[in-house]
Amino acid sequence: MVIRRLRRRKRYKRNVQISMTNPPSLPVYDRFQSYDWNYEHAPDPVEIEVPEMPGKWDICGLSVDSPLGVPAGPLLNGNWCLYYASLGFDVVTYKTVRSRARACYPLPNLQPVACAQLTGDETEVSAATDMTGSWAVSYGMPSREPSIWRADVEATRKQLGAGKLLSVSVVATVQDGWTIEDLAVDYAKCAKWAVDSGADIVETNFSCPNVSTCDGQLFQQPTDAQLVAQCVRSAIGEVPYVAKIGHVPTSEAAGELLQAIGSSIDALAMTNSVATQVRDGDSLVFDGQRRGICGAAIRDASIQQTRLFAKLIRERQLNIQVIGVGGIQNASDVIAYLTAGAKACHVATAAMVDPYVAVRIKRELARHSGNSG
Ligand SMILES: Cc1cc2nc3c(=O)[nH]c(=O)nc-3n(C[C@H](O)[C@H](O)[C@H](O)COP(=O)(O)O)c2cc1C
Asked: What CATH number should be reported for the domain holding residue 89?
């Protein structure tokens, strides 16, 4: 079995070139196993030749080998970060962590869906048996104890190669009776811990429930988001700060959010997902609760949102980069995001399905730039 060979015999030597027409299979996240099982079964890094990405790249002023990254989610711990870094991703984001341990939701954590491009107006989508590009994501942002993830972040940063950046995503954990100020302090505490552990970049997940409007999310509540962003900024000093947001349907809402948090952040990552219910025959999956749809089905909406935010940022002369996330599968999608104004492109679903996706994208872009030059 290829996985065993990789581990036991170190089959690949440094810079081994792999044929992309029929590459050896590599391990991926197993959606039929629990989050904890996948946490414990991170694959070892591989040694394969990854083409250089043409151009000079930076994220929030930090130089990096390419704009390709993995957003918060697929990389459950440091070993997953190192595996995907070895596969050609240059910004690896440590899955969202908290100030206290939190268990994962039960399976299914990843439910394939069958749907066309989503607009955000859908009330439900259909569940599917096979994965064809999009799935509903249901984890509830589990986290290990801070002592565990902090030590892991520290060890991971030390092992990441030159030209690679480690971003750590954090979220607050609402307690009974908390005010928005308490929430802000909890966000800031996690952000500071991430920085103290060596994170190059800190990301706050603002697609999470808000305490002052229990059904809302922070990115939809500009005043509350502003307070949190200011508190995080004062905790982390000059360290690059990214806010991750969900689907913002109108230009007005986008403008209000920028007005509120624009002076505290260095970048905005979008889009987390498009939320909707999932129907399987006569019943609704996840007890009828909405879940974020990720993958191919959110590409068009996310590119459109990237274009909108990039335009507003330009008009307001803000010093904020947009990190494009959502449905990226190939070099054309990367070009579409960069053309829409993104400075970086992060791939979650496609990278979990095809671990070679960064190598394929870099090869295609290198060929593209060779041809056009
Ligand atoms: C398995 C999985 C877990 C995720 N967990 C998180 C998370 O913990 N925090 C977060 O901000 N986003 C999370 N996301 C959302 C991704 O960061 C990303 O925004 C989304 O998947 C869209 O990108 P994609 O279309 O390339 O999958 C998760 C996505 C997936 C697929």
From this structure: 3.20.20.70
